[in-house]
Amino acid sequence: MSTTTYPVTWDLETFFRGGSESEELRAHLDEGAEKVRSYAKAVADFSTPEAADAAEKIVALIEQTKNTSAHLREAGAVIGCFLAQDTTDKKANLLQGETSALGAKFQTAFMSLQQKLSKTDEKVWEELLASGQLEEFSFILGEWRKKAGAKLPEEQEALITGLSVDGYHGWGELYDLLVGDMQVKVTVDGEEKVLSVGQANNLGTHSDPAVRKEAFEKLEAAWAEKEEFFAKALNSLAGFRLQVYEKRGWDQVLREPLEYNRMKQETLDAMWGAISANKGPFAEYLNRKATLLGKDQLDWYDFFAPVSESASKLDYQDGAEFILKHFGKFGPELESFARMAFENGWIEAEDRPNKRPGGFCTGMPLSEESRIFMTYSGSMSNVATLAHELGHAFHSYALRPVHQLNRQYAMNVAETASTFAEMIVADAAVKEAGTKEEKIALLEDKAQRSVSFFMNIHARFLFETRFYEERKKGVVSTARLNELMEEAQREAYAGALGEAHPHFWASKLHFYITGVPFYNFPYTFGYLFSLSIYAKALEEGEAFEEKYMALLRDTAVMTTEDLAMKHLGEDITKQDFWEKGVRLCIRDVEEFLSLTSNEG
Ligand SMILES: [Zn+2]
Questions:
Q1: Would the pLDDT of 52 be above 90?
Q2: How far is the CA of 418 from the centre of ligand 1 (A)?
Q3: Rounded distance, CA 158 to CA 43, Å?
Q4: What's the gap in Å between 35 CA and the centre of ligand 1?
Q5: 398-436 in b/e burial notation, b at 16+ Cβ within 10 A?
Q6: For the segment 148-192, what is each residue's pLDDT rounded down to a tens digit?
Q7: Bridge partners of residue 192, in order along the sequence
Q8: 381: pLDDT strictly greater than 80
Q9: Rounded to the nearest whole angstrom, what is the distance from the C-alpha of residue 388 to the centroid of ligand 1?
Q10: What is the pLDDT confidence band of residue 358, given thresholds at 50, 70 and 90?
């Protein structure tokens, strides 16, 4: 029973009053333009250090970098929220263009600073670091130096950054516009409903197979109808990316995402190796689920079908209490943080039209707050998503004592705190289950998550890797995109997939994110990485929270290999490490298989 009523919509007024028409926001953006101008001038006036006495100047520039970037990101995050809550907000759309242009100007100056620092003579560099003033930033400065050294000359990189506003990021923004505009008609409970893509996707958990099938088919048809637009956007943004790589002399498409995630290729190979070697039990789970649903094989639209009538539904208030209760068992900080987020309107969860599909968490660096976006319709998977996004927000919270420049953690570890929070909720729910039916439903939920990370994400990774290889040779046709996607799905689901989802390349927004390439394997990394942290948390109890927060604080100042070694004592370039996590998932699946062995 809920005692408090938490708001279902978020509060954005604390940042700028008056929504996208806000005068405060207007003034903030004008101030941002001024900040970018003076930052660019300061960088232009700075020259490559020739002696250790430049340390003070570098520290001052770092502060200016921090302030300018935080100012812009504050606006960018809030505008992103405006667009997510109402895809028809045209003013917000214009403002997004404006901030993204400002952001590109800032990036150009920022990169110039990195270039200038990267040219510092090795001996001077060592003296600078030895001076003590830059110690806090030694990792990030070293990374800048390394990255800038691998790029084109400054003017050329500046040109690329400038051109990328319309020629690259514009494609991703066009995608969001196209999707926000899409509607499908689905008959639910005898009534025809006009639904947004997000709402129709949520029907994948509906108990009526006819509803799931119809929603899937209507969506497939909607994607197919617009497939040429999506193929154009995907080919163009990939083409842009590949052109840039080619000019820089980078032949591996994975180079940028691996560097971005501060991890080695051998670590990625070890992770997929451990997963590929252990797909059997997950395929068996899918086949069992098909049997329970009275089918020979599981079709795409049945992945999230409830296997039993008792699959729990929780209204938003109860979902919130459920999360708080289980967070509390892990540690007091996580619980009190989440309670504050629920109470203070940090979360937008209402189920209504014109919202963007999916969920996210965004940080406002000036206010030191976060906002969470999702569409909550009461399924356990919605509760898990909510816990997931709260995990992201908690990560930002843990990083508050750390300098802004040392908070830029990568995707793979970004998904660690989120999946960790998700796991607390999912695992505790299984233990608490009152009936066998409920236990089956909850184990099912966990199995679904493993399938998502080990099969769905694997399919995305396989598709994207192969698509980029073909794109190097020219534009990839829609027919070929569908084919590549279906092949990737068949392989990733290890023969346990009935009807595939060939237009998944159009429906999954992650393929259109330009901020970060290959927005897929870091999820799986985060999931398995979290599992091993979670195992330690179970061993050590509440005392672990402090260590956990120390690990989170270190997420942006070392490679993932070093992070795991320092805080977990594990070598993540070895398949063994990843297999430990996979085995925990297999245990859940085996319990599900044994509980359902007499049914269906
Ligand atoms: Zn996430």
A1: no
A2: 6
A3: 13
A4: 31
A5: bbeebebbbbebbbbbbbbbbbbbbbbbbbbbbeebeee
A6: 788 888 789 889 999 999 999 999 999 999 998 899 999 998 899
A7: 187
A8: no
A9: 6
A10: confident
Burial class (CB in 10 A: 0-12, 13-18, 19+), 326: buried
Whole-angstrom Cα distance, residue 66 to residue 35? 11
Among 348, 343, 377, residue whose Cα is nearest residue 83:
348
Q: pLDDT digits over 235-271, tens only?
A: 999 999 999 999 999 999 999 999 999 999 999 999 9
Q: How confident is the model at residue 309 (pLDDT cuts 50, 70, 90)?
A: low
Structure tokens at 159: 């040109």
Distance 509 CA to ligand 1 centre (A): 13
pLDDT of 12 reads 98
What are the two backbone dihedrals, phi and then psi, of residue 196, each rounded to the nearest 5 degrees? Answer: -75, 170
- 361 alpha carbon – ligand 1 mean position (Å): 7
CA of 506 to the centre of ligand 1 (A): 20
Handedness of CA 410, 508, 283, 447 (dihedral sign): positive
Least confident of 281-285, 300-304, 461-465: 300-304
Backbone angles phi, psi at 193, to 5 degrees: -120, 140
- Distance from the CA of 270 to the center of ligand 1, in angstroms? 22
Domains of the chain with CATH codes: 19-175 (1.20.140.70)
Task: List the structure tokens of 251.
Answer: 């032949």
With bands split at pLDDT 50, 70 and 90, how would you rate the model's confidence at 3? Answer: low
Compute, in angstroms, the gap from residue 359 CA to the centroid of ligand 1.
8
Q: Are 311 and 441 in contact (CB under 8 A)?
A: yes
One-letter amino acid of 371: R
Neighbours of 135 (CB within 10 A): 10
First and final C-alpha spacing in the chain: 34
Burial class of residue 531 in the structure, from the number of CB atoms within 10 Å of its CB (0-12 exposed, 13-18 middle, 19+ buried) = buried
Rounded Cα gap, residues 412 and 523, in angstroms: 6
d(C-alpha 551, C-alpha 529), whole Å: 12
Per residue in 451-460, pLDDT tens?
999 999 999 9
For residue 588, the CA-to-ligand 1 centroid distance in Å is 22
pLDDT tens sequence across 541-583:
888 899 899 999 999 999 999 999 999 888 999 999 999 889 9
The overall pTM is greater than 0.90: no
- CA 112 to ligand 1 centroid distance, Å: 31
Query: What is the Cα–Cα distance from 430 to 438, expressed in whole angstroms?
Result: 8
Which parts of 349-476 are beta strand (E)? 360-364, 369-373
Q: Which residues lie below 8 Å from residue 420, measured CB to CB, with a gap of 6+?
A: 391, 530, 533, 534, 548
Separation of CA 92 and ligand 1 centre (Å):
24
| Distance (Å) from CA 425 to ligand 1 centroid | 15
Residues 197-238: pLDDT tens digits?
A: 988 998 998 989 999 999 999 999 999 999 999 999 999 999
Note whether 3 and 340 are within 8 A (CB). no
